[in-house]
Fold this sequence. Notes:
By secondary structure, the chain is an all-alpha fold. 18% of the residues are buried. It has one domain (4-88): Orthogonal Bundle (Hypothetical Protein Yqey, Chain: A, domain1), CATH 1.10.1510.10. The chain has 4 helices and no strands.
Amino acid sequence: MSSLKEQLLEDMKLAMKNKEKEKLSVIKTARAAIKNLEIEKRKDLEDDEVLEVLQREIEERREAIKEYENTGEKNMLKKLNQEIEILAAYLPEK
Protein backbone atom coordinates (compact mmCIF):
# COMPACT_ATOMS: atom_id res chain seq x y z
CA MET A 1 0.00 0.00 0.00
CA SER A 2 1.39 3.36 -0.97
CA SER A 3 1.34 6.32 1.35
CA LEU A 4 -0.90 9.31 0.80
CA LYS A 5 2.12 11.45 -0.07
CA GLU A 6 3.13 8.94 -2.76
CA GLN A 7 -0.44 8.88 -4.07
CA LEU A 8 -0.50 12.67 -4.26
CA LEU A 9 2.79 12.66 -6.16
CA GLU A 10 1.55 10.06 -8.63
CA ASP A 11 -1.72 11.92 -9.12
CA MET A 12 0.19 15.16 -9.63
CA LYS A 13 2.27 13.55 -12.38
CA LEU A 14 -0.87 12.15 -13.98
CA ALA A 15 -2.60 15.54 -13.82
CA MET A 16 0.42 17.13 -15.53
CA LYS A 17 0.41 14.46 -18.22
CA ASN A 18 -3.33 14.84 -18.81
CA LYS A 19 -3.18 18.65 -18.62
CA GLU A 20 -5.71 18.82 -15.78
CA LYS A 21 -4.83 22.31 -14.56
CA GLU A 22 -7.36 22.52 -11.72
CA LYS A 23 -6.44 19.16 -10.25
CA LEU A 24 -2.75 19.88 -10.63
CA SER A 25 -3.08 23.21 -8.84
CA VAL A 26 -5.02 21.70 -5.93
CA ILE A 27 -2.58 18.82 -5.50
CA LYS A 28 0.42 21.15 -5.64
CA THR A 29 -1.14 23.37 -2.98
CA ALA A 30 -1.84 20.37 -0.75
CA ARG A 31 1.68 19.01 -1.23
CA ALA A 32 3.12 22.43 -0.33
CA ALA A 33 1.06 22.52 2.87
CA ILE A 34 2.30 19.02 3.74
CA LYS A 35 5.92 19.99 3.01
CA ASN A 36 5.62 23.16 5.11
CA LEU A 37 4.38 21.15 8.08
CA GLU A 38 7.19 18.63 7.60
CA ILE A 39 9.71 21.47 7.70
CA GLU A 40 8.04 22.91 10.78
CA LYS A 41 8.01 19.54 12.59
CA ARG A 42 11.40 18.52 11.15
CA LYS A 43 10.15 15.07 10.24
CA ASP A 44 8.27 13.24 7.51
CA LEU A 45 4.55 13.13 8.13
CA GLU A 46 2.69 9.88 8.57
CA ASP A 47 -0.55 9.23 6.69
CA ASP A 48 -2.71 10.31 9.63
CA GLU A 49 -0.89 13.65 9.77
CA VAL A 50 -1.23 14.06 6.00
CA LEU A 51 -4.97 13.44 6.40
CA GLU A 52 -5.12 16.24 8.96
CA VAL A 53 -3.45 18.60 6.49
CA LEU A 54 -5.91 17.61 3.75
CA GLN A 55 -8.85 18.08 6.11
CA ARG A 56 -7.52 21.51 7.04
CA GLU A 57 -7.22 22.42 3.34
CA ILE A 58 -10.85 21.36 2.82
CA GLU A 59 -11.98 23.36 5.85
CA GLU A 60 -10.21 26.48 4.53
CA ARG A 61 -12.12 26.14 1.28
CA ARG A 62 -15.41 25.66 3.12
CA GLU A 63 -14.76 28.87 5.04
CA ALA A 64 -14.02 30.67 1.78
CA ILE A 65 -17.28 29.33 0.32
CA LYS A 66 -19.20 30.94 3.19
CA GLU A 67 -17.60 34.28 2.39
CA TYR A 68 -18.19 34.00 -1.36
CA GLU A 69 -21.84 33.02 -0.87
CA ASN A 70 -22.41 36.52 0.49
CA THR A 71 -20.82 38.15 -2.56
CA GLY A 72 -22.65 35.96 -5.06
CA GLU A 73 -19.55 35.01 -7.04
CA LYS A 74 -20.80 31.82 -8.64
CA ASN A 75 -17.57 31.04 -10.52
CA MET A 76 -15.52 31.12 -7.33
CA LEU A 77 -18.07 28.97 -5.50
CA LYS A 78 -17.93 26.39 -8.28
CA LYS A 79 -14.12 26.41 -8.26
CA LEU A 80 -13.92 25.96 -4.48
CA ASN A 81 -16.44 23.11 -4.56
CA GLN A 82 -14.38 21.38 -7.27
CA GLU A 83 -11.25 21.78 -5.15
CA ILE A 84 -13.03 20.23 -2.17
CA GLU A 85 -14.08 17.27 -4.33
CA ILE A 86 -10.49 16.73 -5.47
CA LEU A 87 -9.14 16.83 -1.91
CA ALA A 88 -11.98 14.74 -0.47
CA ALA A 89 -11.01 11.89 -2.80
CA TYR A 90 -7.95 11.33 -0.58
CA LEU A 91 -9.92 11.08 2.65
CA PRO A 92 -11.10 7.69 3.90
CA GLU A 93 -14.74 6.97 3.19
CA LYS A 94 -17.06 7.52 6.12
